[in-house]
């Protein structure tokens, strides 16, 4: 498969693993020292759902974020010279968004997102998140677990139906 050898030979690629291949599709795990495409996402603190598709040089991302962060991401992508097209936006009603998480859950959850706790591989540990919020690791774990549970409950009852 020429895309594998071409990708593997790229100087910024530190690791490439073929996870599966089926006819003309493959799932790769790629590690790079120069994640140009991901830098704007990390800089703005937008959680990126992985894996994401790259077809003919075009990446397709699914994001869940606020309109403010989405706008900031668009500005950052433009500033980085990365072309993009927004396919779809689904808005959560303001009252819904405010009622999903408590203020404290939102603070800790957003800190975890911004630090890279939900990235793969993680850029931050639970200890990192806890220290940045000046709380114990057990408290951070409890708050994040409750926040994640509320987000999952909301998703299952609202977004999926």
TrEMBL record:
* UniProt keyword Transcription present: yes
Question: Per its UniProt record, what InterPro entries does this chain match?
Answer: HTH_bacterioopsin, RNA_pol_sigma_r3/r4-like
Which stretches make up the HTH bat-type domain? 101-152
The answer on whether this UniProt entry bears the keyword Transcription reads: yes
**What Pfam families has UniProt attached to this entry?**
HTH_10
Q: Which UniProt keywords apply?
A: Transcription, Transcription regulation
Mind telling me which PANTHER family this protein's record contains?
Answer: DIMETHYL SULFOXIDE REDUCTASE TRANSCRIPTIONAL ACTIVATOR
Query: Can you name this protein?
Result: HTH DNA binding domain-containing protein
Organism of origin is Halogranum amylolyticum
